[in-house]
Specification:
It contains four helices and four strands. By secondary structure, it is α+β, with helices and mostly antiparallel strands. A two-stranded antiparallel ribbon has the order 1-2. A two-stranded antiparallel sheet has the order 3-4. Helix 2 runs antiparallel to helix 3. The site of zinc ion (ZN) has 8 residues, from loops. Zinc ion binds next to loops.
Protein backbone atom coordinates (compact mmCIF):
# COMPACT_ATOMS: atom_id res chain seq x y z
CA UNK A 1 0.00 0.00 0.00
CA UNK A 2 2.84 2.34 0.89
CA UNK A 3 4.65 1.53 -2.33
CA UNK A 4 1.48 2.08 -4.33
CA UNK A 5 1.11 5.55 -2.87
CA UNK A 6 4.80 6.25 -3.44
CA UNK A 7 4.53 5.24 -7.12
CA UNK A 8 1.38 7.27 -7.72
CA UNK A 9 1.95 9.82 -10.49
CA UNK A 10 5.29 8.30 -11.39
CA UNK A 11 6.31 6.71 -14.65
CA UNK A 12 6.87 3.20 -13.29
CA UNK A 13 8.84 0.49 -15.07
CA UNK A 14 8.51 0.81 -18.82
CA UNK A 15 10.13 -1.03 -21.72
CA UNK A 16 12.90 1.52 -22.09
CA UNK A 17 13.84 1.16 -18.41
CA UNK A 18 13.88 -2.64 -18.76
CA UNK A 19 16.00 -2.43 -21.90
CA UNK A 20 18.49 -0.07 -20.24
CA UNK A 21 18.67 -2.39 -17.21
CA UNK A 22 19.31 -5.47 -19.35
CA UNK A 23 21.97 -3.61 -21.34
CA UNK A 24 23.59 -2.44 -18.10
CA UNK A 25 23.74 -5.97 -16.69
CA UNK A 26 25.28 -7.16 -19.98
CA UNK A 27 27.87 -4.39 -19.70
CA UNK A 28 28.62 -5.52 -16.15
CA UNK A 29 29.16 -9.09 -17.37
CA UNK A 30 31.46 -7.90 -20.13
CA UNK A 31 33.29 -5.63 -17.66
CA UNK A 32 33.96 -8.48 -15.25
CA UNK A 33 34.82 -10.95 -18.02
CA UNK A 34 37.35 -8.57 -19.57
CA UNK A 35 38.38 -7.20 -16.16
CA UNK A 36 37.74 -3.66 -17.35
CA UNK A 37 36.68 -2.05 -14.10
CA UNK A 38 35.82 1.40 -15.49
CA UNK A 39 33.02 -0.22 -17.55
CA UNK A 40 31.19 -0.67 -14.25
CA UNK A 41 30.51 3.06 -14.42
CA UNK A 42 28.33 2.38 -17.48
CA UNK A 43 26.46 -0.24 -15.45
CA UNK A 44 25.82 2.17 -12.59
CA UNK A 45 24.81 4.93 -15.00
CA UNK A 46 22.35 2.53 -16.66
CA UNK A 47 20.85 1.40 -13.36
CA UNK A 48 20.61 4.99 -12.21
CA UNK A 49 18.88 6.01 -15.45
CA UNK A 50 16.41 3.11 -15.25
CA UNK A 51 15.62 4.09 -11.65
CA UNK A 52 15.28 7.73 -12.65
CA UNK A 53 12.80 6.75 -15.40
CA UNK A 54 10.80 4.58 -13.04
CA UNK A 55 10.50 7.31 -10.41
CA UNK A 56 10.11 10.22 -12.82
CA UNK A 57 7.01 12.37 -12.54
CA UNK A 58 7.42 13.86 -16.02
CA UNK A 59 5.08 11.29 -17.57
CA UNK A 60 4.64 13.08 -20.90
CA UNK A 61 8.37 13.15 -21.61
CA UNK A 62 8.99 9.58 -20.37
CA UNK A 63 6.11 8.17 -22.41
CA UNK A 64 7.37 10.00 -25.48
CA UNK A 65 10.83 8.44 -25.05
CA UNK A 66 9.35 5.00 -24.50
CA UNK A 67 7.07 5.42 -27.52
CA UNK A 68 10.11 6.32 -29.63
CA UNK A 69 11.79 3.09 -28.54
CA UNK A 70 8.71 1.01 -29.38
CA UNK A 71 8.55 2.64 -32.81
CA UNK A 72 12.24 1.87 -33.42
CA UNK A 73 11.71 -1.76 -32.41
CA UNK A 74 8.68 -1.99 -34.66
CA UNK A 75 10.49 -0.54 -37.67
CA UNK A 76 13.44 -2.91 -37.15
CA UNK A 77 11.22 -5.98 -36.81
CA UNK A 78 9.14 -5.01 -39.84
CA UNK A 79 12.35 -4.49 -41.84
CA UNK A 80 13.42 -8.03 -40.91
CA UNK A 81 9.95 -9.28 -41.85
CA UNK A 82 10.27 -7.70 -45.29
CA UNK A 83 13.77 -9.13 -45.82
CA UNK A 84 12.50 -12.58 -44.87
CA UNK A 85 9.63 -12.27 -47.33
CA UNK A 86 11.97 -11.13 -50.12
CA UNK A 87 14.13 -14.22 -49.56
CA UNK A 88 11.13 -16.54 -49.36
CA UNK A 89 9.62 -15.17 -52.57
CA UNK A 90 12.84 -14.71 -54.53
CA UNK A 91 11.82 -17.30 -57.15
CA UNK A 92 8.32 -15.94 -57.75
CA UNK A 93 8.42 -12.22 -57.05
CA UNK A 94 10.73 -9.27 -57.20
CA UNK A 95 10.49 -6.27 -54.92
CA UNK A 96 11.03 -2.72 -56.08
CA UNK A 97 10.82 0.64 -54.40
CA UNK A 98 8.85 3.38 -56.05
CA UNK A 99 11.39 6.05 -57.14
CA UNK A 100 9.09 8.87 -56.10
CA UNK A 101 7.42 7.79 -52.83
CA UNK A 102 9.60 4.81 -51.75
CA UNK A 103 6.56 2.53 -51.50
CA UNK A 104 7.57 -1.14 -51.77
CA UNK A 105 6.10 -2.87 -54.78
CA UNK A 106 6.04 -6.57 -55.55
CA UNK A 107 5.94 -7.92 -59.10
CA UNK A 108 5.96 -11.46 -60.44
CA UNK A 109 9.31 -12.67 -61.77
CA UNK A 110 10.10 -13.48 -65.42
CA UNK A 111 7.83 -11.07 -67.31
CA UNK A 112 10.76 -9.28 -68.96
CA UNK A 113 10.87 -5.51 -68.97
CA UNK A 114 7.66 -4.21 -67.47
CA UNK A 115 6.13 -0.90 -66.56
CA UNK A 116 5.24 -0.78 -62.89
CA UNK A 117 2.59 1.60 -61.67
CA UNK A 118 2.95 2.55 -58.03
CA UNK A 119 -0.11 1.58 -56.05
CA UNK A 120 0.35 4.51 -53.70
CA UNK A 121 1.21 7.55 -55.81
CA UNK A 122 0.58 6.33 -59.39
CA UNK A 123 4.20 6.89 -60.52
CA UNK A 124 5.12 4.74 -63.55
CA UNK A 125 8.59 3.29 -63.97
CA UNK A 126 10.04 0.34 -65.85
CA UNK A 127 12.14 -2.47 -64.45
CA UNK A 128 13.27 -5.89 -65.55
CA UNK A 129 11.27 -8.47 -63.61
ZN1 LIG B 1 4.94 5.80 -55.45
Amino acid sequence: MGLQRFMYGRNGVDQLAVLVLIASVLVLFVASALKVSWLQVVYYAGVFYALYRTLSRDLVKRRKENHLLLQKVKSVTSWFGIQKRIVQERKTHRHFKCPSCKQRLRVPVGKGKITITCSKCGEKFSRKS
